[in-house]
Amino acid sequence: MTKDSERLDFGTVLPLSLEEEIKHSYLDYAMSVIVGRALPDAKDGLKPVQRRILYAMLELGLRHNQAYKKSARVVGETMGKYHPHGDAAIYDTMARMAQDFSMRYPLVDGQGNFGSIDGDPPAAMRYTEARLTSTGEEMLTDIDEETVDWGPNFDESLKEPRVLPSLIPNLLVNGSSGIAVGMATNIPPHNLSEVVDALCLVLDNDETELGEILSVLPGPDFPTGGVILGRDGIVDAYRTGRGRVVVRGKAEVESGKRGKGRILITEIPYMVNKTNLIETIAKCAQNKTINGVTDIRDESDRKGLRIVLEVSRDADPEVTLRQLYSRTQLQSTFGVINLALVNNEPRVLPVREMLRIFLDHRRSVVRRRTEYRLRRAQERAHIVEGLVKALDLIDRVIALIRGASDPNAARAGLVEELAFSEAQAQAILDMRLQRLTGLERRKLEEELAGLLAEIERFRAILGNEALLDGVVKEELLELKKRFGDGRRTRIADDVDETLAEDLIPESEIVVVLSRDNFLRRMQLQDYRCQLKGGKGVKGAQPKGEDEISLLSVTTTHRDLFLFTTRGRVFAIKGYVVPEPKTGKGKHVGTFIPLEEGERVVALRDSHLDGAKFVFFLTVQGIAKRIEVGELSNLTRAGRRILGLAEGDEIARVHLTSGGDELILTTAQGQALRVAEDEFRPLGRQARGVRAIRLGESDCVVGCDVVRQDQQMLCISQFGLGKKTAYDQFALHHRGGSGVKVMNLGDRTGPLVGSWGVRDGDELLVISGRGRVIRFSVDDIPSLSRIARGSILVRLDDDDAVADVSVFRCDPEED
Predict the structure, then answer these.
(1) Is 577 helix (H, G, I), strand (E, B) or coil?
(2) Where is the catalytic site (predicted)?
(3) Could you tell me if 133 and 64 are in contact, meaning their C-beta atoms sit under 8 angstroms apart?
(4) Is 342 in a helix, a strand, or coil?
(5) If pLDDT is split at 50, 70 and 90, which confidence band does 554 have?
């Protein structure tokens, strides 16, 4: 044997580009997945595997009024005849068609465990049984009357329907979801009654506007109920085929025992796993991202879903509920993608197009069914006419048959001698003798009359489009009468947009700024009121040189104004300031855009209390008054409201009424009482005018409005302080040096500031080393302006007072 003879003959070898081969192969695979597996047909709303399961169940005789059969029998029938892709995929698909929480109108009636809304998988197919539901049967109605096209199965041994007749508008009422190659579909379910009404509208007027459709088909209707928030997403989805529908579970706030509230959840959004939802709520409650939840109970049973959340007495159940909507799957978004196959091509369909495609399909089914029934009626009428004629010629017919040598000769004789057709002759030969009676003759004549009437009606339907549409409409209305039910999902027009502050309980907080410019907040209630002279509690323990610089008492829902050395002001919400258990918080630069070298020098609660002006006083004694409207609509972007000389910066910010008197205080213990109208209102770019003349190395540390029911509180660096009546300070013009306000020395240190206080007020004093003390103003002695004061805060040797905040316990007085 030669080497040449050992060579194999591979035939002609064609050179192919690898890129082209991969492109064609991948496109073939992609189209196979798109058409053969993942996407539903726009006519019957079914994927191939769903269609094959339903047809296999019909062949097995599993109608809604017949006995159940094992699911394994259905799976085997489907896989062996039509769908050779694995039993697990077939069984999972059949199980989903039996789940009332997945399908708005289930197509399979399952007996046994077919899964649950908790995400439990179905029992093994050998344990469960199934049959068609009434709606499932309607998908197959008239399939044996040549209403749809057929094609070979995978091995060409059998025929299978390419699409089902589908009296049910399944694509809309049950929806569909699937992921193909490079595309996905996500069609929501709808209410059958509403879809039928919309179909009737389009049937009566093919140019029906979207607004008219929306009047009868307002939106999706999910099997699990819930509430759709707003109609904009629905309109987008119906108009373009794509949209975002926000679905919220149904929850109510109830009063529980011992003053506690509780939240009762009875419906959850579509396709949300109940177990996962409960786990998420528990985790959020543990992490304190949801406030007040003390217990979670799943009380769901066969009657319906019921999740109970117990809420603590000090929590607001309404806030907790808003947090649930925002931070769990109790509110979710359903992304609508109306992608379906139209003549085996994937298309994104507006709702009007979906309705038209289904109506065209039903017209085709009714037309083909009518043609089939017409043909059958004509064939039967022809036979009956022959039988009636044979009865008229009965003696000759009997004689001819008796004289024939065999059935073929008798048939030929009937055709040739008595002018019967082949079909009529065969029917006469098959006729029983009892048909010769008078009663049977009348039955044949009545049957013939009925057949002729049917033939006339069928011809009228086929010859008149309006009559054909009338049949389609009549069947749809009958379908609505049999299976229509009430809407489960409510559509809320008045959407209460949940703002960020709605998710956070309003509480009084202390916002602290460190000397290293780190912001953090603490709960005011954490600081109990003490007697003066105490050492306080650890409230904002700094690390290293990170000492406390400023603080302000505000609430989580109010704006906090931040004034900077460059004469700019910013506003942030109290709740955005972090509340860390440990650490320094976050750098102020993460909240507001600071320039190089710029720092925050004042924190001010945004509660304006009817004020008309904002009064600024700089460290160098320059004052400026602007209208309070300049602080309106402030954001994190900030606004420049004060022009400053080089080296100067804001020392104090105060709100005034326009006719107040002010008292200005310096670090070296000087105070000047001056009328507000000495300072005319200026624009945002102005620098201001001189307010107080300062001594060498002195600076402004305090500014307050003089009120009749208040006294002046002064606190020094080392924690000494006192109250002094305002009538001890005479009124002067601006630009003066003022008078002595406190006897300062080495034991007191310079003044930290001055504040106007009244009986019943409370102080929050914070030291540079993070020591915080809260005590009542009533405990501070009232002394003359030249007195030294008493010890208010006992500090360590290396510590000093950093800032003071005055607040009222009664919010109505604040």
Answers:
(1) coil
(2) 127 (o-(5'-phospho-dna)-tyrosine intermediate)
(3) yes
(4) strand
(5) confident
The single residue of 127, 372, 527, 726 carrying the catalytic annotation is 127
Query: Taking Cα atoms as reference points, which of 380, 385, 413 lies closest to residue 398?
Result: 413
CA dist., res. 209 & res. 332, Å (int): 30
* Chain length of the chain: 814
Nearest to 230 by CA among 218, 212, 238: 218
Contact (CB, 8 A) for 68 and 130? yes
Confidence of residue 5 (pLDDT cuts 50, 70, 90): very low
Structure tokens at 1: 């044997």
Residues of the chain with CATH 1.10.268.10: 360-486
Mean of the pLDDT values across residues 390-409? 86
The Cα–Cα gap between 598 and 513 comes to 14
Tokens of 170: 């399944």
Q: For 551-571, give the DSSP string.
A: EEEEETTSEEEEEETTSEEEE
Cα–Cα dist 428/426, whole Å? 5
CATH architecture for segment(s) 506-807: 6 Propeller (2.120)
pLDDT bracket for residue 71 (50, 70, 90)? very high
Q: Where are the alpha helices (DSSP H) in 464-552?
A: 465-483
Residue 263: phi and psi, rounded to 5, are -115, 125
**Alpha carbon distance 10, 21 (integer Å):** 20
Q: Which CATH number is 250-329's, of 3.40.50.300, 3.30.930.10, 3.30.1360.40, 3.40.190.10?
A: 3.30.1360.40
Rama region for 368: left / alpha / beta (φ>0; ψ in -120 to 50; rest): alpha
CA distance linking residue 328 with residue 333, whole number of Å: 12
* Comparison of pLDDT for 771 and 306, the residue scoring more: 306
Residue 91 known to be catalytic: no
HSE-up of 356 (CA within 13 Å, CB side)? 12
Q: Does domain 46-165 have CATH number 3.40.50.150?
A: no
For tokens 């069609």, the residue is 187
**What local confidence, expressed as pLDDT, does residue 495 receive?**
60
Separation of alpha carbons 255 and 68, rounded Å: 47
Q: Look up residue 304 and give its two tokens.
A: 């319906």
CATH class of 360-486: mainly alpha
* pLDDT value at residue 776: 86
3-state DSSP assignment of residue 347: strand
Query: What residues are paired with 308 via a beta bridge?
Result: 264, 297
Residue range(s) in the chain whose domain bears CATH number 3.90.199.10: 46-165
What is the value of pTM for the model shown?
Answer: 0.67
Q: Strand pairing partners for 108?
A: 132
Beta partners for 723? Answer: 713, 782
3-state DSSP assignment of residue 510: strand
Residue 334, token pair as written in the block: 């359903």
Indicate the SS3 state at residue 224. coil
Integer distance in angstroms from the first to the last C-alpha of the chain?
Answer: 112
Q: How confident is the model at residue 532 (pLDDT cuts 50, 70, 90)?
A: low
Q: Can you count the helices (H) and strands (E) in the chain?
A: 18, 43
Asked if 536 contacts 765 with a C-beta cutoff of 8 angstroms, the reply is yes
pLDDT tens, position by position, 411-440:
898 888 888 898 888 888 888 777 667 667
Rounded CA-CA distance 584/184 in Å is 47
Q: How many CB atoms lie within 10 A of CB 13?
A: 6
- Where do the H-state alpha helices sit in 270-350? 274-286, 317-327
Q: Where in the chain is the domain with CATH 2.120.10.90?
A: 506-807
Nearest-angstrom CA–CA distance, 512 and 526: 14
